[in-house]
Amino acid sequence: MPAIPMLFSNKFNVLLLWKCLCLLVVLVGCNPPGEPVKCSTKDSNCTVTNSYGMFPDRAICRAGNVAYPTSEQELVSIVSAATKSKRKMKVVTHFSHSIPKLVCPDGQDGLLVSTKNLNRVLKTDTEAMTMTVESGVTLRQLINEAAKAGLALPYAPYWWGLTIGGLLGTGAHGSSLWGKGSSVHDYVEEMRIVSPAKAEDGYAKVWVLNERDKDLDAAKVSLGVLGVISQVTFKLQPLFKRSITYVRKDDTDLGDEAVTFGKLHEFADIFWYPSQRKAIYRIDDRVPINVSGNGVYNFTPFRSTLSLVLALVRSSEETQESSGDAEGKCLNAKLVTSTLQSSAYGLTNNGISL
Question: Which residues does UniProt assign to the signal peptide (predicted)?
Fold first, then answer.
């Protein structure tokens, strides 16, 4: 008799998750995350969060003020004034995508410096294949503007709502073992950083670092502790397309194959599902721009999802955890992977799911 309620629970949970996943796959409308900084008075008495709406410990981060510079000159003035007043500063980006509390300043005495309005593409040199942008430019802006010039940033994270300053500071990357590697900062040629300085330097200084400076590597992935990134110059590559195929295999030889697979395909990636003893290999290679097809990679886990759907999925997971429903969790896991597979992992070619 005890098995009957458990069986019913499993079926119910699977059905519930299936409906939620179907909603996740078919929903295409979305909105960007809300403003991460909210102030009770104009730019004062503020709170800051991330694009998820909360930090892992559910704490509320407070700041005395927020500043929105629109140019490097304004940024220098803001850093100078805060340094002179001995205020702690933290940089916040347009969508504040970081999960940990890197953005939290010194409570009501702290200052947030937002790069929201430092959002311009300053220069594109098609002959040198370089592009200079302000640190608040999003990855989407960079990719689109580069494409207009017939150029491409070869490797990037999945979500293009990240800002250039944010993704550099946290070491964001794509997936590749080829060339310099898949980290975005590997394609930085020059950076301009505004840092606190001594009184004789006006309490703020602009550092210009290029490939001849040994400190550039440290500045590329600084977690914001060296100052505020003002401008970045990237070395780009000629525009290209990618050919992607997913292959599902047993994981018996995953350890032996991983490095070999990565060396065979420029943008290789592997999803590993140990509970199912399966691995999904993404065969992902560069192809010429004139190859037919117009592919779009709308990665399913990063799509907009209704709050109700998320709440239902979370409720189902908590019920399984509290009841020790291992069978139900395994069924749900298989349902997730089969749904991703049936939706081609978000890939379409000429508007048609593969």
Answer: 1-30
Q: Token pair of 259, please?
A: 């490095």
Angle of CA points 148, 152, 153, to nearest 5°: 135
Chain center to CA of 79:
27
Q: Which of 79, 114, 149 is the last residue of a domain?
A: 114
Instruction: Give pLDDT, residue 31.
Output: 61
pTM: 0.82
How confident is the model over 147-197, as pLDDT tens digits?
Answer: 999 999 999 887 888 999 998 988 888 888 888 888 899 999 999 999 999
Same domain, 65 and 89: yes
Whether residues 168 and 189 share a domain: the answer is yes
- Report the alpha-carbon distance of residue 295 to residue 280 in Å, rounded: 20
User: Given this model, what pLDDT does residue 138 score?
Assistant: 95
3-state secondary structure of 121: strand
d(CA 246, CA 251): 15
169 and 210 in a single domain? The answer is yes
